[in-house]
Amino acid sequence: MSTILLGFGLCPETRDPKIVKIAIEGMEGVVPWQVEVFTLSTRVWRSAYSSNVPTKFVIGGEHVVADGVVYLHVNGDVSDRADGEGGYGNLIVSFDRTSEEFGEVKLPDRLANTRCSLCMFKPRESLAVIEGGLEDSKLVCHVWVMKDGVPKLFEKLFTISGHTPDGSLVSSVLGFRKTGEALVELQAHPCSIRIFATYEPYSKAINNLGVSGRHISVYSYTETLLLLDQPDITN
After folding, report:
1. Do 55 and 125 reside in the same domain of the chain?
2. CA dihedral of residues 167, 168, 172, 174 (deg, nearest 10)
3. 209-222 burial string, b = 16+ CB within 10 Å, else e?
4. pLDDT tens digits along 73-102
């Protein structure tokens, strides 16, 4: 079984559009990842410059591209647990689009060792990790953000929990607005109906956006103008 992940964006240093393709064969992390890079200036695929391509990690979830870095949620050895015993847990692998080198973003012990689900987003070009799980029989989503791009320096911004006045349950975080509001999915009755809403972290207000259905997805985008057949002219 193989997994292929793609990351696209401008190289922060050269401003050259770049696509990164990472192919992982199997699910045990026993062979090196196959990493290729495509740049618009050369229009060819080549191997990445990295000399430290991962081999020991298993992809644990989605990936995001934030501030010139591709972040991948993986499962691997967590050697600095609070109890000193190490173990198998969550961490994040980073790929710098400029240097094309890999690194490890070690999560706080709470996130590294949790059995709860984790997912990643990039509000305001920062890496955010959402920790979701049951607490006191209620579904709770904790929002953590990496501060100043420093690995293991994560700050919990806010927590989303509970029911709305009409009895709907906040079931998951789907993304973020530029204003900092979280885009959330509400689970209504019957359970098959999903409702799209926003969560304002300061007032804790939940606003129904008037969109509902069996499945709701959110994708981020960046407006840009790129002339593929013209040279890049800068002043």
Report:
1. no
2. -140
3. eeeeeeebeeeeee
4. 887 665 544 444 555 678 888 888 889 999
Q: How many domains does the chain have?
A: 2
Q: The domain containing residue 140 runs over which residues?
A: 114-217
Task: Express each pLDDT in 16-36 by its tens digit.
Answer: 888 888 887 765 555 678 899
Residue 233 carries which DSSP code? -
2: its two tokens: 């193989």
How many Cβ atoms from other residues are within 10 Å of residue 116's Cβ?
16
Same structural domain, 103 and 122: no
Distance CA 58, CA 199 (A): 32
The b-or-e profile of 13-35 (16+ CB within 10 A means b, else e) is eeeebbebbbebeeeebeeebeb
Calpha distance 51→45 (Å, rounded):
17
Place of tokens 């045990």: 28
* Residue 75 domain flag: yes
Domain boundary among 107, 129, 155: 107
Global pTM reads: 0.80
The phi-psi region of residue 92 (left if phi > 0; otherwise alpha if psi is between -120 and 50; otherwise beta) is: beta
